[in-house]
Amino acid sequence: MVGHIIVADEESTRTIVMRRPEKKNALSEEMFLELRDAVVSAQSDPDIRCLILTGRSGVFTAGDDVEDFLTLATGKYDPTKTRNSVLFLEALVKNRKPVIAAVDGIAVGIGATMVFHCDYVIASTTASFSSPFVQYGLVPEGASSLLLPRMAGHQRAFAMLVMGRAISAEEGREAGFVNVVVPPGHTMNEAKKVAREICELPADAVEVSRKLLKLPKEDILRRIGQEEHLFGERMRAPGVVAALKGFLSRKKK
Question: β-strand 13-18 against 5-10: which pairing, if any?
């Protein structure tokens, strides 16, 4: 586990890097807790004015580790226990500081969802965003069913969240959730420039203005809870286990 989440503070900006190249930066239960802690601990540090979320090896993240999903689906799934991925997303909702996403390569599942929670998104021409939950008999999570229609409209959200269609970086820009598209390997350079620009602004004014732009956090947290309840119900559906096993078997071939 050591080294899968790298946190570095420089020039008033905290950079949080997902690095698990052998799994395309797929996020384990432990990694979600590290991501949450990196976001939460930044809140009490006045020297940190901005956060950058990014991946390594030309990949943002392949999303949840499907093997962890399968363990949940085949074990004694406890709907009263909050999944670690939800704890991380709730930390993003409660976060008071601007978050920049530097997306180079695929952003799948919760990888796409966390981007919807960010304030400024930089994507490379090789980036793509997809949410294949319905294909496995599951449902959207992390308030994506609330945020994406608001950003991109119902039709685009339906194609992505229900039909599972991937959205390219340029399509994301046209849809309104990507700010700028850059060549591969240039997302972090651009993210640092944007972070410096944000950090030069008055911190209190940025925080208040950001809050005005966003939906009330209570509404977002309520939708996360609704989705999580439905997600838990779907995790116990017979077809889900078969779909997850089928995905893993295809990957091993």
Answer: antiparallel
Give per-residue burial for 185-195: e unless 16+ CB within 10 Å, then b. Answer: eebbebbbebb
> pLDDT tens for residues 41-62?
999 999 999 999 999 889 999 9
Checking if the pLDDT of 241 tops 80, the result is: no
107 bridge partner residues: 61, 129
Question: What 3 state SS string does the chain have?
Answer: CCCCEEEEEECCEEEEEECCHHHCCCECHHHHHHHHHHHHHHHCCCCCCEEEEEECCCCCECCECHHHHHHHHHCCCCCCCCCHHHHHHHHHHHCCCCEEEEECCEEECHHHHHHHCCCEEEEECCCEEECCHHHHCCCCCCCHHHHHHHHHCHHHHHHHHHCCCCEEHHHHHHHCCCCEEECCCCHHHHHHHHHHHHHCCCHHHHHHHHHHHCCCHHHHHHHHHHHHHHHHHHHCCHHHHHHHHHHHHHHHC
191-212: average pLDDT: 98
pTM for the model stands at: 0.93
Looking at residues 63-92, what average pLDDT do you find?
83
Does 80 have pLDDT greater than 50?
yes
- The full set of domains in the chain, from first to last, is 5-186+194-204 (3.90.226.10)
pLDDT given at position 76: 65
Amino acid letter, residue 116: F
Neighbours of 137 (CB within 10 A): 17
